[in-house]
Amino acid sequence: MTDGPPPSGAGCTECDAAGGWWFHLRRCVECGHVGCCDDSLERHARRHYEATGHRFIRSYEPGEHWFWDFADDEATVGIPLPAPEHHPVEQGVPGPTARVPQDWRVLLANRP
Fold first, then answer.
1. Where are the domains of the chain?
2. Whole-angstrom Cα distance, residue 104 to residue 76?
3. Residue 58: which residues within 8 A CB-CB, separation 6 or more?
4. Phi, psi at 105, each rounded to 5°
5. Which of 8, 23, 103, 104 is least crowded, fewest Cβ atoms below 10 Å from its Cβ?
6. pLDDT at position 1, please?
7. CB 9 within 8 A of CB 44
8. What pLDDT is recorded for position 112?
9. What is the pTM of this model?
10. Tens of pLDDT along 15-51?
């Protein structure tokens, strides 16, 4: 049995809107919003939590099934969510491949 809304898309909602890129993706358990992780430049998943109070996320990466609680800043257990469970495999990490700058490692290492 699955519960909750489907994901908002294949990539970070805000990064896609701005033509940007991300490192890893996270999916909001409450509303399905897909945002980029805390290791990404913009940290849109955390910003979504701060704006909405939706505290639980699930990894939106292939092969990862863990949940996180932003309020307690710790791993937690969750329920199965509607498909898809992750972004398209061909999207690449970081992604989307066509928008990732060549110096992405330097940019992530030097982010504030």
1. 13-99
2. 30
3. 26, 27, 29, 65, 66, 67, 68, 78, 81
4. -65, -40
5. 103
6. 44
7. no
8. 83
9. 0.94
10. 999 999 999 999 999 999 999 999 999 999 999 999 9
